[in-house]
Amino acid sequence: xxxxxxxxxxxxxxxxxxxxxxxxxxxxxxxxxxxxxxxxxxxxxxxxxxxxxxxxxxxxxxxxxxxxxxxxxxxxxxxxxxxxxxxxxxxxxxxxxxxxxxxxxxxxxxxxxxxxxxxxxxxxxxxxxxxxxxxxxxxxxxxx
Length: 144
Description:
By secondary structure, the protein is mainly alpha-helical. The protein has helices at 5-19, 44-52, 66-71, 80-90, 122-143; strands at residues 74-77, 99-102. Helix content is 44%, strand content 6%.
């Protein structure tokens, strides 16, 4: 739905890129496979988790477009269901250049799946933040 995990990952990655002064080398965004929450702000618990770590975001939920597969070098997702859906969508796009992967493949702690915290507690959102931070740091190190 693009209101929990991916906006956290987007905001975390954007901060890492800014801190490393690499903003001119990265275009960062997040989107959902579904259209359920298009236009909505991230879940208040996601915003709270980010704020607790000094990160702000003005993100609004959006749905993945065909252009995303042609524009972005990487599309990183959170679980196998999203990976399957994104691979299916990408197969319908001419000139797909995006490498589609699980963000968790970069986790030094080897937690491949970043579970959806929507039905959980504040602590579950904090766990997502911690996973995203580890994965985004490792991805950025590998990629530049």
